[in-house]
Amino acid sequence: MEIISSEPELEVSLRRLESQSNRSSSIFIGGVGLTVSMNDLLINNFNQYNSIFILTEEDDTQGPLVETLPEGKYACIFYNGNHSESPEHYRSLLTFIRDNGFEVCGDSIERTIIDHYISRSKEDYLTEIQIPIKC
Question: Which ranges carry the GyrI-like small molecule binding domain (predicted)?
Fold first, then answer.
């Protein structure tokens, strides 16, 4: 587990992951993601990430750092904004989960699909949050 709580830490972690995996994140739109631990989700601590990942193609599943995202049901939300705006959307998604009788059952997945590398306009930024749930 790696704790990431600032933009500089995110950049360092991403460069380290690229080096260790011999993969480049710069060619992937929306291909870099972060996770928030289930424990942090349950105590409403959304400003600290516990891992970073690079999505790969389905046929590129070999290697010591390759893991498959868990299959299952996810509560999802897309919003215009970047990681710094995610706490309010985590709160909304967790309210939806509780109000509909679901239960959080794992770490969240957060991906910025469009950010400052793709568009100069903050209105274009797009981020997705997925939280695994069980009924």
Answer: 52-134
- Give the domains, in start order, of the chain with CATH numbers: 7-134 (3.20.80.10)
Share the mean pLDDT of the chain.
83
CB of 112 within 8 A of CB of 30? yes
The token pair that represents 89 in the structure block: 């959307």
Q: What is the model's pLDDT at position 117?
A: 64
Residue 77: pLDDT above 80?
yes
Take residue 66 and report the two structure tokens written for it.
């390759």
Q: How many helices (H) and strands (E) does the chain have?
A: 3, 6
Among candidates 77, 125, 130, 80, which has minimal Cα distance to 106?
Answer: 130
Bridge pairing between strands 73-79 and 103-104: unpaired
State the DSSP string of 43-56: TT--S-BSEEEE--
Rounded to the nearest 5 degrees, what angle is found at the Cα of 37, between the Cα atoms of 66 and 41?
Answer: 145
